[in-house]
Design a protein that fits this description.
Helices cover 41% and strands 28% of the residues. It has helices at residues 10-28, 31-47, 49-55, 79-87, 101-109, 153-167, 181-189, and strands spanning 59-63, 68-73, 113-120, 123-133, 137-144, 171-177, 192-197, 201-206.
Length: 207
């Protein structure tokens, strides 16, 4: 009979609960989260203005399985096609913002959001979202149409945007639900390593 695993330190357990709480408030778009999000948005206007300006010029070709895609920063001019993309998302784990057209437009204007579109043969098939947080932290996520899941563009996209965030001196994290092993494997392939796990998701940091 093996001994039970030692309990995590109190500070780690408190941090896990705080992260789960914020995650849940985000899902609910709770007023507390909106207040927190507003404060972070004001901070981003000050702290990350240069980062966003440089991100606007960041473009790369993404090598996939037997094909390539293009990665570039999304602007308000992309609102229509971005809203159309979000309207096609019907999977379990969705972006951290509502998917209607109004919120799609807002996501492309936010100071704390760096949205990079994945274009395959001219069609917007997915996007990587780098969210900027106080004091100098980034959280990366990627969402794409299921028709493109086997081309490898999503994994290469987050690996590519990590080149940008690390060059900007940002600590880059991802959160992966504990029941999503495929996303976990993709994040680890792209350079992230697990730093802790709570009851809902793994927290990984890019190394």
């Amino acid at each position: 009979m093996t001994d039970p695993a030692p309990a995590a330190p109190l500070a780690t357990r408190l941090q896990n609960r705080a992260e789960e709480w914020i995650y849940r408030l985000n899902e609910q778009q709770h007023p507390i989260f909106r207040l927190y999000d507003w404060g972070n948005e004001i901070w981003a206007m000050i702290r990350f203005r240069g980062v966003r300006r440089r991100a606007a010029g960041f473009e790369r070709t993404l090598p996939g399985k037997g094909d390539t895609a293009e990665l570039r920063f999304l602007t308000p001019e992309d609102t229509d096609r971005f809203a159309e993309l979000l309207a096609r998302f019907d999977f379990k784990y969705l972006p951290p913002h509502p998917l209607d057209r109004e919120n799609a437009a807002w996501a492309l204007r936010r100071a704390s959001y760096l949205p990079f579109g994945i274009f395959h043969r001219g069609e917007l098939v997915g996007y990587t979202l780098v969210r900027l947080f106080f004091p100098g932290r980034a959280v990366t996520g990627v969402w794409s149409l299921q028709t493109n899941h086997n081309r490898g563009f999503s994994q290469v996209a987050v690996k590519t945007t990590a080149e940008f965030t690390l060059a900007e001196g940002l600590s880059d994290y991802v959160t992966v639900p504990v029941d999503n092993p495929y996303s976990l494997k993709g994040a680890q392939w792209a350079g992230w390593k697990i730093v802790r796990t709570n009851r809902r998701f793994h927290v990984l940091r890019h190394h």
